[in-house]
Amino acid sequence: MEKPLNATMKPSLEETFKIVQESIAKNKTLIVVGNCEIEYKGRAESKLGLGERILLIKNDGAVLIHRPTGYEPVNWQPSGCIFHSRLTETGLVIRATNVKTKESLKLTFTGVMFATQLELKDTSEFILHASEEDMQKAILLKPELVEEGFHPIVKEKKTAPGFVDIFGRDKYGRFVVVEIKRKTANKDAVLQLWKYIQTIGETEQHIRGILVAPKLAKNAGRLLRELNLEFKQLSPKKCIETLRKSTSGELLRYMK
Amino acid sequence: MEKPLNATMKPSLEETFKIVQESIAKNKTLIVVGNCEIEYKGRAESKLGLGERILLIKNDGAVLIHRPTGYEPVNWQPSGCIFHSRLTETGLVIRATNVKTKESLKLTFTGVMFATQLELKDTSEFILHASEEDMQKAILLKPELVEEGFHPIVKEKKTAPGFVDIFGRDKYGRFVVVEIKRKTANKDAVLQLWKYIQTIGETEQHIRGILVAPKLAKNAGRLLRELNLEFKQLSPKKCIETLRKSTSGELLRYMK
DNA sequence: AATTAAATTTCGCCT
DNA sequence: AGGCGAAGTTTAATT
């Protein structure tokens, strides 16, 4: 872990200015804690008088200003900002301009408690677990997520990554194949479902195919209709919620 | 401006532990920069391997963990968390549990670049300018925001705070009174508009009354219909966008 | 407390 | 590049 190049407790505005300048020049991560006032002009406009806040400028030019409470920053800018800083009579002025969104942020620091520029090494991949397996579990637990009267019979685990299927019957006893996608389903997903039905559809009886996903791509929708398949909108979030609401006993009964 | 009680460069895990403990006990603002891994369990679940990040714990128990890029924190918890921290063989573990949302966050720091607890004084009021005056300006600039064919004649500035009116005529030449609300319009807004029309409606000619607001409260809606008034949905955001798109020349012509 | 809508939403995916 | 929709959305307002 690398030592920060510059980090100072209770720096003067001049010292802070140097740190800010260098951090901006080298696209590093910057933290400044101090007394400042803030003006924002863009989609809306805002003004915030003097107070002690935490300024965070990230490597990609994202800006966050945090007050002592709350999840949300009081002011911010998305990534891609260009910065200008200068020392004035009123204090250390830092301007962040977002060319893309034509917005600007102006901070004026009158006193600084702490300032540092950091070179953070962070390469790990963020993994959010709201998998298709989770969606499968939720549907097995609560089949009406697919449709009223749906009854799962067999759950399949495909070797190919990225989808999971469920066999079942609808309320009229017709066979149903459910294919789940965690994200927007595209043509490939439709074709996968179709192929699957083709493969097993040896009988003369019609087999319904339902693609379950948070969203259906437009072109996929056309293909879906052409192939006489169906779509059911279902988000991973809803599935996770379903799983959380269920008791462990119910889960075990279905998942074992 | 108060000096931070505890701020250390390259503190050991033991030193960091002390800072964290004290900060949590006294509900202060805490910043820890260091190498950590993160687990989240709640509405969804997530995992993030080791990497250098910025941890921010706020006075109200809000938690933010920021990677070197992007506006959004990689993991977080809304305000109201309860914290537990302890030193283990793997590192300094900080757990944030949100009882309200039944979510939890587990951070394990293996090395720390910087840690500080802060007592931030920040009492200024945040003022967002997307005022009714802005909405009025936007409508004067682009009357079709109210409806196709609307033509403003007079703009009124009422002394009572919280609303602005515009007089005009619709495409059939009928008189129109527009009342603007920046937020959801309630019964009072409807009654104000109605009273206004009553006051000026000396002629036998019908005067239309249009309430312009981002939203109409349900009860207000019923009253509106009973009084034969109308509603037009319009958000401050849309108005600001309209104003931003206009040239200063156009603005001057209308606003002077 | 639950529901609904707005947000300087951001972010990702698709056209 | 622009538009649409989801998000661990959050937050505020209303029922």
CATH class of the largest domain in chain A: Alpha Beta
Helix fraction of chain A, binned, reads: 25-40%
Tally of alpha and pi helices of chain A: 6
The oligomeric state is homodimer
What is the name of the CATH topology of the largest domain in chain A? Trna Endonuclease, Chain: A, domain 1
Indicate the low-confidence ranges of chain A by residue numbers.
Answer: 159-163, 247-256
Shape of chain A: elongated
Tally the structural domains of chain A.
2
How many β-strand stretches of chain A? 14
- Major protein interface: A-B, 63 and 62 residues
Gist?
2 copies of one chain form a homodimer. With 256 residues, chain A is of the alpha+beta class. Helices cover 25% and strands 39% of the residues of chain A.
